[in-house]
Specification:
Blueprint (H helix, E strand, L loop, with lengths): L15 H8 L5 H19 L9 E6 L5 H14 L11 E4 L11 H13 L8 E6 L10 H12 L4 E8 L3 H12 L4 E6 L4 H13 L5 E2 L1 H15 L7 H16 L7 E2 L12 H6 L15 E2 L2
Parallel strand pairs: 1-4, 1-5, 2-3, 2-8, 3-4, 6-7
Helix pairs in contact: 1-3, 7-8, 7-9
Length: 302
Amino acid sequence: MLEPTNTTHNPNPAADPHFDAIMQLQGAEEFKQLVQRVRKFQENKVKYSVPDARLPNYLWFARRGGGITTCVTAFSEYLHAAKIIEFSGIVKYFKFIPAHTAPHAYFSELTRLNNTLTEIAGHHRHFKGIACIILDDWLEYTTEIHFNNLLYFCASISDQVVTVFCAHTDNRREMEAVESAIMSYMRCETVSLRFPGTGELVKFIEEKYFAKHHFCFTEEARSLLAESIAEITTGRYFAGFKTIHHLASDIIHGLLTSDLNGGEITAEMLREFFKDSAYMKRLKTPHENKVMGFGAHRECVK
């Protein structure tokens, strides 16, 4: 029977600010639960002296703009601060997007991935950290030879790299297919990153951007704002909280350039931001700067 050692309950208090920051994220409840399990895993690993126990790899599903980059950045910072996995290299994580390659063609993506690992290892012998592999191009091709070769390669480096596979889909058939393929090669835990709903986003905007300046919405204004948010979140080029921040900042700017009479925001004052307005059409127009970024440490793209 395992007996607890004399270690403290939390061996790495430096990780607490990173843990707390994750717990304060809007939405992403399954991701928060994942981090809570990881924290408990590390506590028990130290407490019961099980040094060989390792984290699994992960499969994250999210809609576009759902915060995958935000979560993987926060995850890597927490794991590093808590000393849960070993990191070595010039970055803590990197993002890699393997392009789909026809079965009869040479699969150069493995060479590119291997070269990336060598590059970010820096002066270290091997890169150790997190690989964020975006599988969007492969969701319809999970039975093809090159996809299996990719999974085999990722499994072969799992003693040095925790792989977070990511896919922007809510299609149940695609989700089950990619999950089954990955689990045939390696340990993997699946997480869905749910982006906050319209009501949650309205409340978030009110609390984060307006309440601190003593602005408040009338019920009609709040209802119209909800319609506008529902409109932009269904757009193909929605960029998550980045888009929400743009919307809130533009509303505040519009208010401050108008004739204000107190802190009450009426529907008429939001006319420029109605769902059918020219502003909303511009916000939904594709632009390269609206692609999800959230400050990733390193992105390796096609």
